[in-house]
Write a structure and sequence with these properties.
The protein has 431 residues and is α/β, with parallel strands linked by helices. It has 14 helices and 15 strands. Strands 1, 2, 3, 4, 5, 13, 14 and 15 form an eight-stranded mixed sheet that branches. Helix 7 links the parallel strand 9 and strand 10. Helix 4 packs across helix 5 and helix 8 runs parallel beside helix 9.
């Protein structure tokens, strides 16, 4: 072999033997000096560490050291730094809750999208850098909002969306009490299903149109006319048909389920998470534990509905059902915490104004969680439910640089998370 060839071979060998970090280390362009870092993976508080960011992602979490002048330094030495918060039960792309039952119908798709843009910004400014949007009356408005955020057209959190509700006719996912449901616009009835075949067809449609997961209405709803939270709605067979489609398409299914039997039906059908779980009983709790089913329980919401709903004259049916579910839901939450059931943070924002999502943290602590557990539910645990724990939910190398900073210590006072000071999404300061 000639000398040039030998030299080339030697050079190649040298490159191949370099440590991976030396070959592939991304160029650091921002360096966050953190006073304290909440390490949600270990459950510990780190001091004296800095966060190196390359483009959108975290490159390293390390003892602070001097950086080249080309690296932008962000001085958060007076702040506690957490991963960006995550709310897995929101309704950004909707007109919101009010005494006017017809408001979603009065809001055109275009108007609803504009409302969603404001809601998205308010949510991001509150420190919630990722949300799961679990359905909208105007079907696929959430997909449009997600796409607009991803393209940089409007500011907002990372969105994972359902596209709409898969519900029975007149069920908890329908806009009941306004007009004959058959006269509602088509985009308000994309998911209305009778029988497993139609449920599967509607599931396929939502996925094709951009849904990241699917949302079933397994029981009646608190905020829906003519339905009762404790009553099962979609059958096990209908829900199983949707779960089967989701599995084939690489997505998962969540279920709105208040009543105990509906919860058990949804778990039996194979859903990944249960939303609300207001009337969960001991048998359903044990089943969720055994199956590894997640619970997403909006335990702040009941107080808001009772207070504002009463003042604004929301339908008495809504207020009655809310009174019947609030306290028992919180008792069920406390039991779930003690049993070690998997719980992720979800508030049902849209029932209350967007941007105050952090109000639920103190309720979760009040009903059994430690402050660290409550924070984990809105970070690493939420990311695990999404199946995105290698991308989101912790301040770790390889994750998106989604961060919040606050002067107060949320481990000492969890209510501090109701008002964060700074927000970063994908390495860019947004607040």
């Amino acid at each position: 072999m000639r000398l040039p060839a030998l030299l080339a071979l030697a050079a190649t060998a040298a490159i191949l033997t370099l440590p991976v970090s030396a070959q592939d280390a991304p160029t650091i362009d921002r360096y966050v000096i953190a006073g304290r870092i909440v390490d949600v993976t270990s459950g510990k508080l780190l001091s004296g560490h800095c966060i190196a960011i390359a483009s959108e992602k975290i490159s390293a979490v390390e003892p602070c050291k001097r950086q080249p002048e080309s690296v932008r330094t962000i001085d958060w030495s007076a702040y506690t730094v957490l991963p960006g918060l995550m709310d897995l039960h929101t309704h950004l792309a909707d007109a919101g809750q009010s005494a006017d039952l017809a408001l979603p119908l009065k809001s055109s798709p275009a108007a609803t999208a504009l409302i969603g843009a404001k809601n998205a910004r308010d949510t991001l400014m509150a420190g919630f850098t990722t949300v799961r949007d679990v359905g909208t009356y105007r079907g696929l408005t959430d997909v449009a909002l997600k796409d607009a955020i991803n393209m940089g057209r409007v500011p907002g959190p990372r969105m994972f969306v359902a596209g709409g509700y898969i519900t029975k006719p007149g069920g908890g996912g329908e806009l009941n009490g306004v007009t004959d449901n058959e006269k509602l616009p088509e985009d308000m009835r994309y998911g209305v299903s009778v029988g497993p075949e139609q449920a599967a067809t509607n599931a396929e449609y939502f996925i094709e149109e951009g849904a990241d997961f699917l949302k079933l209405i397994a029981t009646g709803a608190v905020l829906a006319i003519g339905t009762e939270p404790g009553e099962p709605e979609l059958s096990v067979e209908e829900m199983k048909a949707v779960v089967d489609i989701a599995a084939k398409r690489g997505v998962y299914v969540t279920a709105h389920a208040h009543g105990a039997q509906g919860i058990k039906n949804a778990i039996a059908a194979g859903v990944r998470s249960i939303e609300h779980a207001s009337l969960i009983d001991d048998e359903a709790l044990k089943l969720a534990k055994a199956k590894g089913t997640w619970l997403v329980m909006d335990i702040y919401n009941g107080d808001y509905i009772d207070d504002i709903g009463t003042k604004e004259g929301w339908p008495e049916e809504y207020l009655r059902k809310n009174r019947e579910t609030t306290d028992v839901q919180r008792a069920g939450f406390a039991k779930a915490v003690k049993m070690g059931i998997k719980i992720a943070y979800g508030t049902d924002s849209g029932v209350y104004p967007h941007g105050v999502n952090g109000r639920q943290f103190k309720y979760m602590v009040r009903y059994g969680m430690t402050p660290m557990q409550a924070i984990q539910s809105a970070t690493i645990r939420a990311a695990e439910l999404l199946g995105k724990e290698h991308e989101l939910g912790s301040i770790s190398p390889g994750r998106f640089a989604d961060l919040v900073a606050l002067k107060a210590d949320p481990l000492a006072d969890i209510a501090a998370l109701e008002a964060v000071d700074h927000v970063m999404k994908g390495g860019e300061l947004v607040r």
